[in-house]
C-alpha cells in the first residue's frame, strides 16, 4: 500500500462475461376432444361434445451460480403443478348449452431446494380451486335476420378463492387471493348477437 509508483498501478483490466446461471422448465400439455352425433345411435337429435385440456408442470427450476442452491418452484404459490379445463356441451337446431369447469391444483408456499433449506413456516398448503361456468345460446330469426340470444353465468358457485395474503411482500399491494382467483364472484351476462 505504500508503493505509489506506476509499477503498482493496473495497466490492463480484463472482464469476461459468462452466463453461469441455469433455468429449466418441463411438463406436458394434453388435449382430448370428442364430438358425437346423437342421432346416429339414439332417438335424440343434436351433438354432444367433450373437451379436456390438462397442463402438468414438473420442473420450473433455477440455479444462480455453480454449486449454488437449486430451487424448484413448481407447486408453489402462483405456479400450480396441475391445471385443467373441462367442458361438456350439447347443441341442436340453433340451441346450445355448455358447462365448463376450471381446476387449479393445491400449491405449497415455498419451493423445494437442493441442498435442503429448513423452513420455519408451517402453513397448510393453498387449497385446490374450482371455477364453474354455464353458457346458453339460442338462435332466432327476426325479419329474415338471424339473431343469437345468449345467457352466461360465470363463477356459478361464487368461489372467490382462498385467502393467501398477496404475493409480492407489500401488504395491501394486491388482493389477498392468488392471481388466478375470480375476485368478482358470480355474475351473469345476457344479450344478443347479430351478424351483419
Helix/strand layout:
Layout lengths: L21 E16 L9 E17 L6 E3 L9 E11 L2 E10 L7 E3 L14 E14 L2 E10 L32 E8 L2
Antiparallel strand pairs: 1-2, 2-3, 2-4, 3-6, 4-5, 5-7, 7-8, 8-9
Short synopsis of the structure:
The protein has 196 residues and is mostly beta strands.
3D architecture notes:
The protein has 196 residues and is an all-beta fold. The protein has no helices and nine strands. The protein has strands at residues 22-37, 47-63, 70-72, 82-92, 95-104, 112-114, 129-142, 145-154, 187-194. Strands 1, 2, 3, 4, 5, 6, 7, 8 and 9 form a nine-stranded antiparallel beta sheet that branches. A hairpin with a 2-residue loop joins strand 4 and strand 5. The mean pLDDT is 84.
Which H/E pattern describes the elements? EEEEEEEEE
What about the largest sheet?
A: 9 strands, antiparallel
- Tell me the number of strands: 9
Overall radius of gyration:
27 Å
Distance between the termini: 85 Å
Specify the helix fraction band: under 10%
Mean pLDDT: 84
Question: Strand percentage, roughly?
Answer: over 45%
Oligomeric state as shown: single chain
Low-confidence stretches: none
Indicate the overall shape.
elongated
Q: Number of helical runs?
A: 0
Structural class: mainly beta
